[in-house]
Amino acid sequence: MDITAFLGVLLGCGLIIQAIGIEKGIHLFVHPTSFLIVMGGTFGATLVHFPLTQLFRIGGRLKVIFSPRGRDYLQDIKHMSEIATNYKKNGRLSLEKTVKKTQDHYLKHGLQLLIDNIPVKELVPILEKNIDFIQSRHNQGIHFFEQMAQYAPGFGFIGTLIGLINLLSELESPETIGPNMAIALITTFYGILLANLIFQPLSGRLRIASNEELIQKKMLLEGIICIAQKETNYMIYEKMSMCLPEKERKKLKPNK
Fold first, then answer.
1. CB of 158 within 8 A of CB of 78?
2. What whole-number distance in Å separates Cα of residue 78 and Cα of residue 84?
3. Could you give the residue ranges of the DSSP H alpha helices within the chain?
4. pLDDT tens digits for range 163-198
């Protein structure tokens, strides 16, 4: 599990608590009613905004966010070079064993197209369209948390209005001024805090994971094209490593 997301939330909350001052009354910022207004309203609006199929995918999206998924681009280049060597020596049917062992669905699909002897001019559009669909699916998850980040402050302001309405309706009762003002102010605090410390960062983390995967898929596409055209391992390296920093490229630079 990637704990950096948890650490970020804990660090943010810790610094906010430190700034407020525990001794000066952190209990003033703990208000269940205000929290319920913001969270209940945000989730309710999310239920209205998104179909049920999108809500069922929350678990998978959180798994992506909190699971370490470091991409080993250098290993991908090595793997594609090995596949290319096997392909040139033993022909396209020799790729069947590789396909069975391959876990990456995109790579498996690309190699299967090679086995089926699909021409490069037809293979490339198919795999590029596959990347477009992957990106579209990723954007749905990113948009999900971005919308929650937009709704949370709005319900914070709704809580503020509720508190002010209650306050103005009971001005003759001094004992109600404090609780109503608490709702009025703390709901806004909760809404802004949840949007900027939870929901927006989650969408950003999904976007980074998406970008990393798309880079990998585009690298694999270049490798598959090179294999189909029976290019050298050096050309596979050159075309697949274009996205890598120079320092990492030097680690794997093959002989021409």
1. no
2. 10
3. 4-20, 32-49, 52-55, 58-66, 73-90, 95-101, 105-115, 120-169, 177-194, 200-228, 233-240, 246-252
4. 888 777 777 777 777 777 777 788 898 999 999 999
The rounded distance, in Å, linking the Cα atoms of 197 and 185 is 18
Which of the four pLDDT bands, split at 50, 70 and 90, describes residue 254?
A: low
Give residue 97's identity as a one-letter amino acid code.
K
Surface-to-core class of residue 64, CB atoms within 10 Å of its CB (0-12 exposed, 13-18 middle, 19+ buried): middle
- 230 Rama class: left (phi>0) / alpha (psi -120 to 50) / beta: left
Q: Which amino acid is at 248?
A: E
Q: What is the mean pLDDT of residues 58-84?
A: 83
**Terminus-to-terminus CA distance in the chain, angstroms?**
40
Question: What whole-number distance in Å separates Cα of residue 156 and Cα of residue 195?
Answer: 10
DSSP 90-157: H-GGGHHHHHHH---HHHHHHHHHHHTT--HHHHHHHHHHHHHHHHHHHHHHHHHHHHHHHHHHHHHH
Do the Cβ atoms of 198 and 38 come closer than 8 Å? Answer: no
Per-residue confidence at 53, pLDDT binned at 50, 70, 90? confident
Given a cut of 60, whether residue 25 has pLDDT beyond it is no
Rounded CA gap, 38 and 191, in Å? 6
- pLDDT for the residue 69: 65
Tokens 């609006």 map to which residue? Answer: 45
Higher per-residue confidence, 56 vs 135: 135
